[in-house]
């Protein structure tokens, strides 16, 4: 660490180690949330010599026109690293242990790592059409990455919307801004799919479980802050 973010062999070995040593029932790569943003041009600090998560060091977009999509997205940034790690894992564990690849979905990836987060959150109320434009422009690219991961050996694709919990948005915001493109991404992805949201997904009368299920994925996962009992009652 942090070499495992950039070296496919080390990425594969570290991911497999969590299953081999800790008994986890799957092997998951990558490890950080900046992969897609870096591929779109965001600068990333890997904190050399430290055990810290990589993070972006600057924000590159104010609207969709600011984003420059690489001509060959699958060769950009560390995406080739993950593709190779998936090939290694599939060759060694395919058919024995599920190999999962996750994609940081547009609302979270754009709103946390491409656009300055506090500004992005203001758009939710002031100019939600900017969020809709950005996500609609970008979701096919994230689906392209998901399908490449599946072709490289991922058995399951998880779409992570870390920033879409009730800590940041309302259920109506999820339904209006996020669910429409997540449904399209699920349809486009040629592998079993999971929708994941960290943070609070059930709070009193407010809940995101229904909206997550309506995206059409085979499964949803939630963070430990959400009551499993409450989530199961809704599901």
Automatic annotation (TrEMBL):
One Gene Ontology term from the biological process aspect of the record: porphyrin-containing compound biosynthetic process
InterPro entries: Methanogen_methyltrans, UROD/MetE-like_sf, Uroporphyrinogen_deCOase
Membrane-traversing stretches: none
Domain Uroporphyrinogen decarboxylase (URO-D): 1-233
Gene Ontology molecular function: uroporphyrinogen decarboxylase activity
Name assigned to this protein: Uroporphyrinogen decarboxylase (URO-D) domain-containing protein
